[in-house]
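[SOLVED] Need 3D model of a two-part complex

Original post:
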Amino acid sequence: MTDALAIANTDHSGIAEQLDYQNQFVSFWINGQLMGIPVNMVQEVLNPQTIAATPLARREIAGLLNLRGQIVTALNLRRRLGLPDYEKTGESMNVVIRYRNESYSLLVDEVGDVINVQRDAIEPPPRTIDSRWKNFAQGVFRLEGRLLLILNVAALLTLDP
Amino acid sequence: MRTLDTRLSREGASPIMDDDILQEFLAESWENLARLDTEIVSLEKDPANSGLIASIFRTIHTIKGTCGFIGLNRLGKVAHSTENVLGKMRDNTLDVSPAAISLVLDGIDRIKQLLEGLEATKEEPAVDSEELINKLELLASLAGDTPAAAAPPPAPEVATPVAKPTPAVAAQPLPVSPSPAPVAEQSVPQPIPLVEQIEAHVAPAISDHHQNNAPSAPPKGAAEEPDPAGGDPKKSVADLSIRVNVDVLDRLMNLVGELVLTRNQLLQMVRGEDESKYSAPITHLNRVTTDLQEGVMKTRMQPIGNAWSKLPRLVRDLAQLTGKQIELEMSGAETELDRTVLDAIKDPLTHMVRNSADHGIEPAEVRQRNGKPEAGRVKLNAFHEGGHVIICIEDDGAGISRDRVLKKAIEQGLVSEVEGSQLSDGEIFKFIFRAGFSTAEKISSVSGRGVGMDVVRTAIERIGGTVELNSIAGHGTTVRIKIPLTLAIISALVVESGSECFAIPQLGVVELVRVAKEDRHKIEKIHDNEVFRLRDRLLPLVHLNDILKLPEIDSSRGDVNIVVVQVGEEQFGLIVSEVFDTQEIVVKPMGSLLKEIKIYQGTTILGDGRVIMILDVGGIASQFGGMASRTRELERHRQDLEGTSDLGEPTSLLIFAAATGDPMAVPLALVARLEEVPVSSIERSGDRLLMQYRGDLLPLLPLHGEQPHLGDRELQPIVVFSEGRHSMGLMVDQIQDIIEEPLSVRMQSSRPGVLGTAIINGKATDLVDTQHYLMKANPLWFQREGTKRRPRVLIVDDSLFFRQLVRTAVEADGYRAVAVEGPSYAIEMIERGEKFDIILSDIEMPLMDGCEFAQWCRKRPHLAGVPLVAITSLAGDIHEKRIMRAGFDHLLMKFNPQQLSTTLKELCAAQTQPVGVSA
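Solution:
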């Protein structure tokens, strides 16, 4: 994933550029696909955590975790995207995000780097995209050799009634 | 100030700044307005109180002044006109009349409305207030002839150049005031250009003043400068207190919660280690943490008066609307509560005060007629009592009629008439809190909003409180609410179910019951539902893992842990696999994605860092559906099982009148038909009456002691009893009704033809002894087929009524019957050597029940071939199994004569066959 960063960072023009949140995305891997969410939504990234079960909750909700006394709802991103469960049970990484004054942890397979892109370069998701993802994909960035799919956090966290 | 306004919202490069000012303004205004309502209502009572007027005037003035600074035009104008009226009142040039007060209140309402809009949209809502402003201006102009006095006072208070518009605008009605009538029309167009003109002056002045940081400066200036302007009322408060955002306190509370958890963890670690070098510092930490927890809790405490501040206004408006005189008395307003609790009770409290004022207090005329003071009184009192806060709402109004509530409860089927007669007043008034229960005959515009007392109860129970009501008709009603001090840190029981841990708030837990594994059979099943007999009642049981859809661990062996919980008046048992200890837990709100699950009320973190869910027992109760009805059902079963009920199963009864007019009854099961026959068709044969009926002769009999008199009517009602080929008709005066009611014979009778007396429909009613009439109509009836040996049937039943009923049916079928009132008599007869072909027995009987009797019989070899038939009103598999296990051959329900007849016939056929072979 460092290669992804290297590819994306075609222009290493100093700290100002690095702090340009508008153009930065935290990347992660889900079922072999590189995805990203805006860096300013991400609170932190955690190693696999103990997740407390929440019986009767929807299957997309993995449970709750204790983040220094703060209770965070963990969302199983694979299930949310209609994908099979991660074969390495209990090894999912946590991308903790802040949305509407609440913290959520997105369970992902692996976490990649922060990727710098030009925001203007975003393209609409290709037509060939998995139909289950249409509602969740905000757009894609063409990185060298692969696509970075930008997820719409609001849509992810709005569970259908 | 339009320019300034738009700049604030559009150009604001620092939206946080704008927002802060606005929030500050809103917070301050709401605080002031809340006080205002109370003050104005007091003013109405005490119009001469110049201090009050001055205080109210200052409040409005502050709002108006701030509006001016941050460019809230519409709001400013309303505030300004209201201030004008108040100014005249302060200067004693305008009377403080109820009409004037109402208008001022209207003005304040409009200000609130605008503020609400502002809060919601961050923009001033486009509400047209001209009419109101005109009214206010007109009122101000009607004042005496020293109106000028109103204008100057603002001037000295306002020191900054920005505030200049205030006196200018305030003075505005001055030129037009001499002629009151045209004021209304003229003042409409007038103020607008004037205000705009002022704005035009002010706006550049501000931007000039702060040239360097143009976009953010005006709000900054505005934020700083209102202080000297409205400084007077604020200073005293500011010296003693600071305003802190609630979020900050919540965060602090969370941190303290964590500290509490860490402390718990540490305490656990050093427990048992007497000589640990850590124990001294940990003890200290423990103490400090406890103090800190209390301290932070205190910051979240608010006086309950905050929830009351709107009530005087509410009661005043209600009094005006209904034309009643109502006084509201409040005491204990300083009693403090956690703000979450306070928020939760605000609405229920308002609802109940409204109820008291609207439904409770009678109109003045009625009160006078009843010798009460004209003005009704609603008293509100709050105080602490052992970790709880008690709030009493008391009125001296009409009260609630206990009987009317009971009648309504019976109508709605919440309780039977007989049960109802045994309820205490408190139990009866509890019905008021049931959903859909209202005794108000007409819906009032004030209280009839479809929000019943059940909503009040639900809201209070949600925060772990209770509510009870008592009332004396004619004297008033008292509602007592008991609520916990805080919801943030609660005591909870930690349990395990399906390998997961859960917390159950201690408030809802009644007791813990452990059923040893050898006592597991004490958990019974009724209709697939498990119940446990806990002391004198049946407790419905729920497996927590079933509710949570978790796998059950070790369900078949080991002890059973039951957590008995209470929801409202209902109790039920939660079966869990493990019960740990009780802990102080910090309630953390549920994430929004989990809020839809109703059986959780929050989450918490245990000492070891694990996150667990806090169960909401109320949610569980509603989840597993109609706990109330289930408990009632079980209660009925209990009564059946224990025979404590004096209410039998409902029996269909035919009610008719004797010639005396007295009601009489006969079980419908014994009636073949009802007829009305022409009197002319009744014939006499000797001293007997007969009629031709369906190709046969039907003997007719009058009720015992009555002479048949046929002359004065055309149609004769007849109740026909029929068995096999034989029938008889009972001549009655009038057939009245068929009802279904539990029957219990209260008095036995020695009169011929009367079995006993029961209370039916609230009247003492004689029960007809059908056997008497059947015998009388056809003395040979029971000796038919006399040549054959008639089987002998033993009937065992403690109920005289059923004993006679069964006996009649058995004898009508041509058997010989012996009826006894208990197994002991039966055993005595059997041991005496009496022979019976069939034994019919009831199940629930005192001393020895039917099952024990059957077991006894089955141990007697000479009774081996005698069929045992149970006749019972107990329904359900569980009973059936028990009865059949005891040795009965058949089970019949009470009471179906046809079924009994068929069964007896079959049993006899089976018995006689082998006899026939041997013979």
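Edit: Strands of chain A lie at 24-30, 33-38, 42-46, 61-67, 70-76, 93-99, 102-108, 110-116, 137-143, 146-151.
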